[in-house]
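Revision sheet: structure tokens.
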Amino acid sequence: MRRAAGLFDVSHMGEITVEGPGALAAVQRLVTNDCARLADGQVLYTVACREDGGVLDDLLVYRRGPERFLLVVNAANSDKLAAWVARQLGGAAAVRDASADFAQLAVQGPASRELLLACPLLAPAADALRGLPFYHFAELQIAGEPLIVSRTGYTGELGFEFYLSPALAPRLADALLAAGRPCGLQPAGLGARDTLRFEASYCLYGHELDEQTDPFEAGLFWLVKLDKGDFIGRDALRARKDAAAARRLVGLALPGRKIARQGFCVFAGDEPVGAVTSGSFAPTLERSLALALVSRGAAGAALAVEVRGERLAAETLKLPFYSQPALRA
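Predicted:
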């Protein structure tokens, strides 16, 4: 996929609409990043936190208009987030779990734009696809049906996402596979997606993020805009920032091909100092790598990971493991 492109079915993701005159103020209160800086057609990556600063989910906010927002949330958190959003807003805006209205297909890889432009079904979207900036989206009509195309990505490569009706999704998938065959397009599963996001050091909810982890610990400090005004968890996050994060997300490389799985213990000397959050043999980099949350004081120490009863010395690496400058081009 890093050589050509992959087609992912990510229809399991959740979609929540927030609409009405109070929509912007409502979304601002729900998330840590500053949605007021969004223009129509822009996307924002952010987190939603509990009052104590623990992360409920990381999500994307799409501004479809001054009174229309689409929140794209993790599948495992969809029901939880929809209920939480409705409860927190208490009628300040109209909230609807719209997950059943959307299928989602993602095309990721350096050849993704080329193959999308070669797809006859997407001919009406050609101008939008050519000029779509990173973290922007366009709303179009394809085959008489509405379609949202965006450019965010979760693999560390150039990529596009399509939000469309479940009825249109199979037709678009078939058209993409046919058009993409000369470009090397391959269908790819969620296991491949997880490996790719791991190489790019993107957080995955339930691994690097959960309700016991705050965004500072996970290295997402840039998502927290404490000066934007009030939002849920603001006071707790201000206190945590001032006190410095108790833990820190670090990148580790292990010798050979042994893999450190989630939950494996990390040591500094004989002292347990944290745990692996994600680990895999990274095919692009041909190394056994891991992400781990460790106590702040241990972040600069010599670390080791216990893998099936054997303690392996680990090299601390700068994150991300893999980056692609063309991603934002």
